[in-house]
Amino acid sequence: MLYGYNKQIRKEVISSPGRYNFLLLENMEKEIFLKIYGGQELALLITVLLTILTDQLSKFLIQRAMELGQSIPVIDNIFHITYILNPGAAFGILANRTVFFIIATVLVVLGVIIFYFRSGQKKGMLPVALGLLLGGAAGNLIDRLRYAKVVDFIDFRVWPVFNLADTAIVCGAGLLVLILWFSEKEKSRDRVDSDANG
């Protein structure tokens, strides 16, 4: 049955409804919660929250410990921690387009959510890939809403300074490409097998 009650319990619920109202409500809430947030959805939510938390915590620590424009060499001339405020997109492109980036980020977030729930493939690493994309986009969106700029600090000297949100977006996008590629490859193999058996 829906909530796993046996016949005896169902008879008692019918005969004494007041006694079991709270129990029924509690079990319904648990089942709804597990249906919404169980399994892959829970993995997606956890990845998003961890990505945002890690990104915002790293930026908070940088802002507390460093002056704007300060650069600390970790490996001299190879890897530095450099605190800047980036008015553009990832890696500094399209500077001073704050409203555009806020709208674009919201649209991307909505697009990723719609893609996930309409996708027939919710297994494997897909929730992690989309969680990294969502969390990274949300992390930079928080900065734009607070400062109209993005806090960047990871500096490899030969590449524009970036942050953990940018890293999450790139990793999520790369992982998504691999997932879709392997999925398409598997579908093609299944079609070949089906044609061969047919």
UniProtKB/TrEMBL annotation:
<dbReference type="InterPro" id="IPR001872">
    <property type="entry name" value="Peptidase_A8"/>
</dbReference>
<keyword id="KW-0472">Membrane</keyword>
<feature type="transmembrane region" description="Helical">
    <location>
        <begin position="99"/>
        <end position="117"/>
    </location>
</feature>
<keyword id="KW-0812">Transmembrane</keyword>
<keyword id="KW-0449">Lipoprotein</keyword>
<feature type="transmembrane region" description="Helical">
    <location>
        <begin position="124"/>
        <end position="142"/>
    </location>
</feature>
<keyword id="KW-1003">Cell membrane</keyword>
<dbReference type="GO" id="GO:0004190">
    <property type="term" value="F:aspartic-type endopeptidase activity"/>
</dbReference>
<comment type="pathway">
    <text>Protein modification; lipoprotein biosynthesis (signal peptide cleavage).</text>
</comment>
<feature type="active site">
    <location>
        <position position="166"/>
    </location>
</feature>
<protein>
    <recommendedName>
        <fullName>Lipoprotein signal peptidase</fullName>
        <ecNumber>3.4.23.36</ecNumber>
    </recommendedName>
</protein>
<dbReference type="GO" id="GO:0005886">
    <property type="term" value="C:plasma membrane"/>
</dbReference>
<feature type="transmembrane region" description="Helical">
    <location>
        <begin position="32"/>
        <end position="53"/>
    </location>
</feature>
<keyword id="KW-0064">Aspartyl protease</keyword>
<dbReference type="Pfam" id="PF01252">
    <property type="entry name" value="Peptidase_A8"/>
</dbReference>
<keyword id="KW-0645">Protease</keyword>
<comment type="similarity">
    <text>Belongs to the peptidase A8 family.</text>
</comment>
<feature type="transmembrane region" description="Helical">
    <location>
        <begin position="162"/>
        <end position="182"/>
    </location>
</feature>
<feature type="active site">
    <location>
        <position position="152"/>
    </location>
</feature>
<keyword id="KW-1133">Transmembrane helix</keyword>
<keyword id="KW-0378">Hydrolase</keyword>
<dbReference type="GO" id="GO:0006508">
    <property type="term" value="P:proteolysis"/>
</dbReference>
<comment type="function">
    <text>This protein specifically catalyzes the removal of signal peptides from prolipoproteins.</text>
</comment>
